[in-house]
């Protein structure tokens, strides 16, 4: 809950992922409940008929079709031109959206470091499986609404991805809806979108998530909360200052208020879960002290994001 | 309800209440903490406030509670108090009787003494006096006087309760008699501030004090006490009427005239018990029990009741008068006589032993009596006369060791020799119509004046000059003797009815002098006794030969009794104002003339403590100690020569002096329900202390604490933005 006293920022990929985890991540792949089209041919079966070796269907020839794909056997039997359609194997667009507003630079362990590690793990899985990986940061200390690294593909781009993630400094007030809007406009194709945030957004998270839903993206929302946010260790007469907008709240924290806070947090999370469920958004709430390997190897696999 | 410090509380309120309100409106300074988001906190607060329908009221409730706490504290600061029993006057003089009768164990049902009960009631009274306020002003004042025959200021006027309590608790019982006069004079002196105003006389210039008298009312001189009109006197009676007490009222030793080794001890007893009872009188000589006698005492005569009752038609006014006339039971009297042969000196102690089956005796102070009996001896008497055959013959008939008849000139020659051993050999000197001349004491250059020499004298036909308390008013005509002290040892068993004075002598006895009138004639005192330190004389100022007395048998009897009384000087006579040599009454001053050159004088007090007091002899070799507070044998020892009756122990002369209560009034333990003073009758006030002043400030502070705790609880149950 409190601003992290002296946050230790990851400097390199070694700070984000350790070697053992990397070895285990290589065996995973990003899954989607939808079969999505991609721009490049990847290792993923697509709904599109394409140029793989696996037969899918026939369709009548129309002028302009590739003559190499005419099924001459059918033409010999029926004297009509049909094209052989094959299942296309294509890549998947993995969009990772990180909310880098100032509120994430809080908690012990820090929420943003956890989000950086999780994003790196997911991005690495995407790169290894030849998906197009795009990481977009909303907000941040730079003051830009969004900053992104786009369309990374292949294991060789791992260090580029890590460099970008390490370069992000959380800070400032996030314009979450505006950021989501830009993400929605800039994304290409279809794929899986993972949104990492604490979703404690005063302007509301609903509009932003709604914007991200378009274009058939399979959206996973991961809410990261620090243990102090879940179990506040505050007490007494305090003036609470919001790190993002310097909003003040004068409180006298005692047992009844703490109880009420927890009830409010539970209600807030419950409303968000309901919101997401209605829109087929998978929502996960995790504590920032959850180990990343447990998160990736266990929780995300159970929730169907990874396989 | 009254307030001791209303101004202080008002000033404090003027400062504190606005301060509290200002502090309330200036919000609490809070610690600033940066957190990730205030979103949830604000929602929680809104929900909490929404859930508290009386939230605004609760906010005000805190202020209300704080104001309530402050109000209670300010109210306590004003020191409110509620008076239970109104105490008239803000100044109180507390007189506590500490005489022997106050030691009676009937102060309460638990057997506490009357003095303990008096102290308890006095402490209650102290508690009921308003305390001074925080600024030390206001409040009541009190002073404490303890008295028996003498009065002692134990604590002057103060508002300090601790000092007053200490003074009251320090009052210890004595074996003295009760006398209100001195105590009341002292109390009056303190009670009201009076000043002399021209043309108006002595007027009261300040608030008068209430005089509280804690006593059993056995105050023989109460009728002589004259309170002023403005003096408020409250009498708090102590003890229970009808308390059973058997006490020694007199103890006296007498040697037989014919055989001085035959010693008779007379013990007078008195019982106030409502039932007849018997008591054992134990006689001990020098600590060894010599005899025990059982004495039966009849029941005390109940108080006389006015005739009347159901059939009486006495008017109500008479009945009321009867009710006002207080009558009390008349104690039963009896006595015991021990006759024994004892030629030596002895310290005689008499003790009462109460049978175990009898009702307990409530007063132990009068169960003992002491006597110092000098050794048996026949007396040497000097008669100084120009010639009086009546006296000479009468004295020759007495069983004397020696009788020397001297002319005044011969005697004068003897007395002019300082410390004449010849004079010291006489036990008694009889002056007939002549007194020796002596230089005035302390005035070496003064003219010699006639006067009594030290020792014991019998004087006929001449009046000793002042300062003896006697004033010679010249001759008078014939007179008859009207009354005489029948209980005096010199006149016991003698009738003076037949005595006619052809030429009486008119004398005047000044009050409050050691002169006691033994016989009263139609022109004034006819026979008087003068008793002072080391002096004792019986004076018949008329000329014997100008009266019928020499022809009356009573003369010889009087002469014999007087010679014996003055010569032996060993009887302690009930009712005698003066004290016999070797005897002292409790409450009075012990004074002894020691042989010249006595030094390092020590007085050992009776009792288990064995306290020894060093005394310094005065220029004329007298030592004094007083007032004597406890009964028993007081022993004087010194270094130097010993007197003729003194014994020597361990190289130091020793003289024993017996101190006795022997007071019939003290032994009569009836409680008087009212006090008849000279100018008014004071009715007893029962339960005078009462609940006293109820101070409210502790309760207010307790209330403030409880409200503060409630406020703290509510404060912790709520949150405000």
Describe the 3D structure.
- Chain A is of the alpha/beta class and 307 residues long.
- Chain A has two domains: 13-35 and 92-302, von Willebrand factor, type A domain (Rossmann fold, 3-Layer(aba) Sandwich), CATH 3.40.50; 44-90, no CATH class.
- Chain A is 34% helix and 26% strand.
- Chain A has helices at 13-16, 19-25, 72-78, 111-128, 158-167, 176-186, 206-213, 227-230, 255-278, 292-302; strands at 44-60, 82-90, 93-99, 132-138, 146-152, 191-197, 218-225, 236-242, 248-253, 282-287.
- In chain A, the strands form three sheets. A six-stranded mixed beta sheet of chain A has the order 5-4-3-6-7-10, sandwiched between helices. A two-stranded antiparallel sheet of chain A has the order 1-2. Chain A has a two-stranded antiparallel sheet with strand order 8-9.
- In chain A, strand 6 (191-197), helix 7 (206-213) and strand 7 (218-225) form a beta-alpha-beta unit.
- The longest helix of chain A has 24 residues, at 255-278.
- Chain A is elongated and about 90 Å long.
- Chain A starts with 12 loop residues before the first helix and ends in a 5-residue tail after the last helix.
- In chain A, 42% of the residues are buried.
- The model of chain A has no long low-confidence stretch (mean pLDDT 84).
- Chain B has 721 residues and is α+β, with helices and mostly antiparallel strands.
- Chain B folds into four domains: 2-81 and 697-717, no CATH class; 91-242 and 671-691, von Willebrand factor, type A domain (Rossmann fold); 380-568, Class I glutamine amidotransferase (GATase) domain (Rossmann fold); 583-666, Immunoglobulin-like.
- Chain B is 23% helix and 32% strand.
- Chain B has 13 helices and 41 strands.
- In chain B, the strands form eleven sheets. In chain B, strands 19-18-20-23-30-29-28-25-26 form a nine-stranded mixed beta sheet.
- The longest helix of chain B has 23 residues, at 55-77.
- Chain B is elongated.
- At the A-B interface, strand 8, strand 9 and helix 9 of A face strand 2, helix 2 and helix 13 of B.
